[in-house]
Amino acid sequence: MYRILPLVLVLGGCTNSFDLAEETSPATYSGTSNTGTTGTATGTTAGTPSGTNTNPQGGSAQRVLGYFPAWGVYGRDYHIADVPAEQLTHLIYAFANIGGGTCVLGDPYADIDRYYPGDSWDVGTLRGSFNQMAQLKADHPHLNTVLSVGGWTWSQGFSDAAATPESRQAFATGCVDMVRSYGFDGLSVDWEYPVEGGLYPGRPEDGANDTLLMQAVRDELDAYESIDGVTYELSIAASGNPAIAAHMELSSLAGIIDWYDLMTYDFRGSWSSKTGLQAPLYAHPGDPMEGASDFNVHAAVQLYLAGGVAPDQLVVGVPFYGRGWPGVAATNDGLFQDVSGIPQGTWEPAAYDYADIVANYETPATVFWDEDSKSSWIYDVTTGIMISYDSVEAVEEKAAYVEENALGGIMFWELSADAQTDSLLDAVHRGFARSNP
Question: From CA 335, how far away is CA 277, in angstroms rounded?
Fold first, then answer.
């Protein structure tokens, strides 16, 4: 059952893959695979890895991980200085690419060259977002920074990198060198997807090779921990789709990595034949999609637990964006209706930043809430637009669920999409606190 969600509740409080909206700066970023050098920071320090994090100010003992998209410095005009570090335990930088079988800079200009006030133009001096992160960490010593490699667009090189002992070692050596050179505290591997493929085909042996690749990276990180005096972290961005997860050696990987970042969203989108809930906490009893009971946060968590993963190794993913459809009939308030076309979205078709939804769509539309799935959506009867998104209430429910089930925390895509008021990040912390009064 569902109810109309009062706007006072939504407004009165504080990608798919991870590659949503790669809008570009034509002079600096092509959006295609960049096979540049791994680079080594010289001049201005890249920062000293902080090792194991402490809790964010005012937060719970849970991890709170926010993604920073490298391309956010362009059209979004969102920079490292805008990151609310006091509310995070981990800042994940997306993305490094794969070139020559190992990690390379995804956007050298944004990563290490863009000038910010106070930067030096001396040859070899680190600038860009990496240098900004070093400064952010100096001001917030609790914060850990994680380099994410791959993503939906840049997963082409993983299958080859994982294929042989030699290629696995080359990947591990180059990626760990990049982590250490630029002062990151860990690496997140976002391979979309072993065996199943995504934009690029996989191999039948990818599942076993993925485990071997992660072991090579873990061994390389461990080899430098005593040298660097750092506890390096290793994680995987993992699908909430059971067909994709079936190709992964979940228990074996759990013995290697520190945690899984579960991509528990994009269960519905512009590719769907009907509107639906893109990131429900629980199954909606009226969802007509085949296998709908498998496509929700709770089902994904149970799948990984059954696969031998410890609860505190499961970090639940939350979308700070919605998925929308135009020309939707008013029946059932727009939910589970036929779709006709793809709307413009905020930065890419059919995807809406949470801040955009709050500012431009919640009014004059009606906000609805489904109690069974703990999900929200908006429907505008005048325009026929329906958008499935996580409201502050939905995010609080997910954070409380994580706390109540002793899971490993909350991850979200992505920081620039949050609203300055009615913040979803604030809702995360309220949800944690609700279970720890």
Answer: 8
DSSP state of 86: G
**How do 351-353 and 366-370 pair as beta strands?**
unpaired
Query: pLDDT tens for residues 69-122?
Result: 999 999 999 999 999 999 999 999 999 999 999 999 999 999 999 999 999 999
The domain spans of the chain are 17-264
Residue 289 phi/psi, 5-degree rounding, is -65, 135
3-state helix, strand, coil in the chain (%, to 5): 30, 20, 50
Q: Which fold has domain 17-264?
A: TIM Barrel (3.20.20)
Residues 81, 82, 85, 86: is their CA dihedral positive or negative?
Answer: positive
Q: What whole-number percentage of the chain has pLDDT above 90?
A: 84
- Catalytic residue list: 192
- Looking at residue 426, its pLDDT comes to 98
Closest by CA position to 210, among listed 140, 158, 266, 269: 158
Q: Is the pLDDT of residue 1 over 70?
A: no
Query: Could you give the CA distance from residue 295 to residue 159 in angstroms, rounded to a whole number?
Result: 26
Query: What residues form DSSP beta bridges with 308?
Result: none
Mean pLDDT of 42-62: 48
What tokens does 434 get? 């609700």
Question: What strand order describes the sheet that includes 366-370?
Answer: 2-4, 366-370, 375-380, 385-389, 321-325, 351-353
